[in-house]
Amino acid sequence: MSHQSPDAIGPDGAGYLPGLALDAVIFGFHENQLRILLLEYRNTGLFALPGGFIREHEDLNAAARRMLAERTGLSDIYLEQFYVFGDQARYDPEPMRSIMRANGLTPTDNHWLLRRFVSVGYYALVDFTKAVPRPDALSDSCDWYDLNRLPALMQDHQAIVQKALETLRINLDRKLVEWAASLLPDTFTMAELQSLYETILNEKLHRSGFQRKMLSLGVLERIDKKYTGGAHKAPYVYRFVAG
Amino acid sequence: MSHQSPDAIGPDGAGYLPGLALDAVIFGFHENQLRILLLEYRNTGLFALPGGFIREHEDLNAAARRMLAERTGLSDIYLEQFYVFGDQARYDPEPMRSIMRANGLTPTDNHWLLRRFVSVGYYALVDFTKAVPRPDALSDSCDWYDLNRLPALMQDHQAIVQKALETLRINLDRKLVEWAASLLPDTFTMAELQSLYETILNEKLHRSGFQRKMLSLGVLERIDKKYTGGAHKAPYVYRFVAG
DNA sequence: ACAAAAGTGTTAAACATACACCCATGA
DNA sequence: TCATGGGTGTATGTTTAACACTTTTGT
Question: What parts of the sequence cross the membrane (chains A, B) (predicted)?
Fold first, then answer.
């Protein structure tokens, strides 16, 4: 589990559903790399996934949307639940205690944030160029990290990222269009789209086969050419068309 | 959400995680039909999915296993989370109030069971011939109902069943072997296996293509012939071999 | 012998894969 | 004019689908 605006939450967690949290793996795609948003907690060197709690009269998915908007400034985000992390052993109160101390709080032993949490895992796909990462009240920074070079993460957050990635891989073919439309800018080249695929699947694909397959889906519209200044043929730029 | 052994749970729900429940869609396959287990509540005519709560020091998935074992008598069940139902509007305290009254309980307005619950949906696949359905403390019966002829269900349980079925359809190809091994008896005919497929996908498949595809997976072992007394060639009986 | 269901064979179409080729571009 | 990356064409192999044919069984 993680946290947002904890100033607004008393030591008893009033106003929020007890024992339930959500953690989000927020994916962006930039320079042919998948990246995720991580928070760094003040004076602790601890990294964590953005997370939040559910208000007493708020839908679970709405809470996820609210939290996503707070971290990225975006309101129309593609997001989906992928797993509930509910092992009793997953929660170790120590990291949270240090975080709170580093924020000048002196938590009692049965402080709300130090109890066991079950956490609903969400993955979100955002347009890297549009998101404006914002730290939460307990953290110094909220920034993009290359999936292949993640810092050590709090608790079981590493496992949560792993599971989110697995989910992406399993469902890529089925969700292709929605996902690519969420992760890429409005227009993109075929090479960029292929690179997104390859990054998620972690395998090289054949260039010509990929092109054919994508075009055969009938969801791409060719706009014009993109002159990159490179000494080679200018690639076409594509856009998704409403199905 | 639902309930188990509520006698052991006081009006404050002590010993259990608050606000969190689990509901299970327990699938069995019999006479070429998919069936699920439903509870019927005493004197109320209300039908519901089997459900339960999580003990304070229990893993979420372990709680699901415990509940599954209580309802079916089986301990080695294939089960998986598929969605968290967390809409604020989903919980209507009225049905639960009637159920409690029908059981001679006089719930206070803020009784634990009458508050909002977020519920983790599990689907489970069991061998129909081995399961021994057992009602829980609040219900009269726990029985199999044909998926195509379900009675009206409490709350959003109809939607939960729908979502579970969707999940089955989406993942059938990928999970094929595990699932068929869980749902079918130890030995079965190719026609039975095909019928299971057709029931889950809700579409007819070509007989010969299906046979070829299944055999090409290399996980079926042909045992011997099954003489049904029918005036036709006796089908072979198959068994899954450990991959 | 016949009907009914099971198993196998045959063919054609669809799809994927690999490679080759041509094109445009800037150095 | 060359190297580079992009787009398309072609040959090959694999998978899927549809249908026909044969086999086995009880009546």
Answer: none
